[in-house]
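for the record, two folds in this file. i put them one after another cuz i was lazy. first one right below, seq on top, structure tokens after. the second one comes after a little note so u can tell where it starts
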Amino acid sequence: VVGKAIDSGLIALGTHQLREHTGGSPHPVDDHPYGGGPGMVMRPEPVYAAVEALSAPGRHDRRVLLTPQGRRFDQAAARRLASLGSVLVLCGRYEGVDERIRPLFDEELSIGDYVLSGGEPAAVVLVDAIARLVPGVLGSPESLAQETFGEDLLEYPHFTRPETFRDQSVPGVLLSGDHAKIARWRRERAEERTR
């Protein structure tokens, strides 16, 4: 979906290497934490240099830092970010980021309470969730309206052919042709799943 959206010009996606903004430092992007401890910390200089180089006036509507302590990324955040013209996302790495870079960002987001090897998988989650909300990316606008979290509800159960499979039958209401009853059944099932 994202690849087709890029190919058709509906969205643009750029990736940038912080190493290009190090000025030849012997510790290009990371260094040992003050006070000791395991791991490496992302240095502030290349982050500031990259964000400043990529942030011509009016270029990005929002700057997002992906961090474990950020606000949980959800469908409402995806809708909000999709409504913007441009979003700059920094993928965290190593043990973390130097605290002094936080003022560069408008918000911090997290995709969940677990540890990843880097922020790139989290960035992929953001890109996918945001891109599919851009008008024209999905084939049918109804896909957005009726999907999971489209109305802050989990999606209702889906069934396809055959009508009966291993003694499990499709609910009769879905075979009835009564669109009002089908819509009511779907809404009730979505509400049950969301509880």
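(here's the note) second protein begins now
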Amino acid sequence: MSKSANINPAILVWARERAGLSVTDAAHQLGFKDSEKKTAAEKLAEFEAGEKLPTYPQLDKLAKLYRRPLITFYMAKPPAPANTGEDFRRPTVEVTRRDNAILETLVRDVRARQELIRDVLEDDPDHQAVRIVGSASMREGIPAFVAKISRLLDFDPSDRSRRRGGAEDLFRTLRAAAEMAGIFVIVAGDLGSHHSAVSTEVFRGFALSDDLAPFVVINDQDSKAGQSFTLIHELTHILMGQSGVSGPPDANEVANEHDLIERVCNDVAGQFLLPDAALTNRPAVDADIDIVRNMISGTAELWSVSEAMVAYRWRRLGWIGHHVYTALLNGYRARWLAYREQRRADRSPESGGPSYYVVRQSKLGNALLGVVYRSLYDNALSHTKAAKVLGVNLSNVEPLLRQFEKTRLAGVAAGRP
């Protein structure tokens, strides 16, 4: 009897949908080709309807594409949903089932990587627990959180000289400091393909709290200025020892404990990135929205933060009303989406750009790459597990680590840690 004879066709459908793929997308990624009699999608649909059995190699491809162990396809019913921690998002935007499925898969994937890293670090006698995890409580108040994160990152929020390089440099500085403190910071907003990209309306970031290997994941669909806000927001969750998914900042009234936690995290990020020293230019009560927009733009540029974040801070202070705030946010989002579309349209195969390995290094972060690099060459981690942790094919592990080694040596030569 064929090894695929006992598979459950309904699980094939479930696994594809949980991976955020349409029948057409999945069929083409599996390498199915259109023929005179059937399209690629129709061939996959036959498997899902139980009309035809996939071969074992095809089943193996399905497992890899859908990021599921082979045993899943033989189950009578889908496995229980993965533990993604708390869902701190507010239902202000309708999120599709597909987007939530992609998000759940992303969280599950990162959690699996975290467990592999934790196993390595547990056996490392030189690695110490990250003491700040779960070290704070909401009862301490916003200023206490800001002070703790300032000490953790060795960053004075009021020192504008640390922000002279712009929003991208600020994010790079804060991320490197968080990684030095023992927190793994990954930038990811899809499952490895732009077809599975999820917007910042679905999630801004998520935290996976752990005393040995805390992870923060930031949606790469956001601007660098927005990513700095999300990083501080998620660090606040880590300080409270919380794991969970966060959505866009919301200045509306809180309705439950989750809303209150999110409000604290947003306010900590707001006060860290835009301290009281930045609040010297208040708009008039009856100021026209164009005047308010220009004032916000000036403040954002001066402090290397997003305009949306300045608007959030002003809204929380009562400097602008709900309608003005909402109109500003809608405008900022529309402008950002238009900018991204234009940038994508302007990009051509001939235009070049950073290599695959440079992009992967930027997304994974030097902390994660550093642990894999050391563990692999100390024989504490296999190449197969390294590929899983890094989210790349086995053949890409060595080239990616060579890219990491090259930039690390360049940093040492330049006097950087």
